[in-house]
Amino acid sequence: MKLKLKMLIASTAVMGAFAAQPVLADAKPHVVILATGGTIAGTGATSTTTVGYTAAKLGVDQMIASVPELAKVADVRGEQVAQIASESMTNEVWLKLAKRVNEVLAQKDVDGVVITHGTDTIEETAYFLNLVVKSKKPVVVVGAMRPATAISADGPINLYNAVLLAGSKDAMGKGVMVALNDQINAAREVTKTNTSTADTFKSPEMGVLGYMQDNKPHFYRMSTRKNTADSEFDISKLNSLPRVDIVYGYANMDRVAMDADIAAGAQGIVQAGVGDGSVAAQMMPAFRDARKKGVIVVRSSRVGNGIVARNGEANDDKEDLVVSDTLTAQKARILLMLGLTKTHDTKELQRMFYTY
């Protein structure tokens, strides 16, 4: 009886000790912000300057300091990878950025990455990363349509939402995302649709992945195409990418631009054709000459929506061409560049366009 009493007293003491311990809140996620410049880091002459401002002026530490609320939702640190307006984005910066993203995400104490970027080519950088990042951890590319000095600048709230998204477990495995204007879009599908308004980024046919609300992401769908950790592309040992150029389709076009691109060393040509990627009669000899030289030709469309049908507006099998599926010309260029690091076989390249 005395033994039972002693055990009961001891047990009560232990439980009391545990009860006395403070309840620890969930640890904040660790998010790394990799800055590349853009309007989100831009400044204007006055608070009403929203056109004619200077992009890429603020450093990453200044941007982080301008949004003190970040410290409440994540442990954040920043790195300056580049400091450019995104119309000046290059393949070399892409490779540098992608390699750093992979290095950072490989760190066990990092939960996600945010990349600040200019909006002009944000969709291209996001899709490139979507194909070469080797992690399921969230990667969020974010920008702004108004410079940091403007009235109602959208950069601070976009950056805040991007950090929340990158630190969310719900964002795992969703591929690279673009987050602006409280919306979450997939890198493969998003495009800039307006020159200046804050709601410029849309996924016209597929729609948004979800929304940012109440300090958390709300997802409604996922992209079905392979991406990130499931991708076959490896840029770890690449220092350059094959040259691929875009030729725009229009009435009365000729082969001058295409021939000039090939003469400059293009290994691939993406035609942003009219309609369903139609090929003008006067352009088909240029396509055939390109193929004789081993240059890959991809039929895309300037329309911006819809599937480019294989063997639809051209006999792709006979002419040994590739079609872009639903990729815009600018994204078809990216996939073709990466595809050419692995193969020049048109059947294999076509498989890639139906996979990614």
Topology diagram in text:
Elements: H1 2-20, E1 30-37, H2 60-65, H3 70-73, E2 75-84, H4 91-105, E3 112-116, H5 122-132, E4 139-142, H6 155-166, E5 177-180, E6 183-186, E7 191-192, E8 201-202, E9 210-213, E10 216-219, E11 244-248, H7 256-263, E12 268-273, H8 284-292, E13 296-301, H9 316-319, E14 322-323, H10 329-340, H11 346-355
Parallel strand pairs: 1-2, 1-3, 3-4, 4-5, 11-12, 12-13, 13-14
Antiparallel strand pairs: 5-6, 6-9, 7-8, 9-10
Helix pairs in contact: 5-10
Structural overview:
The protein has 356 residues and is of the alpha/beta class. The protein has two domains: 30-230, L-asparaginase, N-terminal domain (Rossmann fold, 3-Layer(aba) Sandwich), CATH 3.40.50.1170; 244-355, Rossmann fold, CATH 3.40.50. It is 31% helix and 19% strand. The protein is built from eleven helices and 14 strands. The strands form three sheets. An eight-stranded mixed beta sheet has the order 2-1-3-4-5-6-9-10, sandwiched between helices. The longest helix is centred in the first third of the chain and has 19 residues, at 2-20. The radius of gyration is 25 Å and the shape is globular.
What fold name stands as the CATH topology of the largest domain?
A: Rossmann fold
Strand order of the largest sheet: 2-1-3-4-5-6-9-10
| Average pLDDT score | 94
Q: What's the story with the biggest beta sheet? A: 8 strands, mixed
Distance between the termini: 72 Å
Task: Report the C-alpha radius of gyration, rounded.
Answer: 25 Å
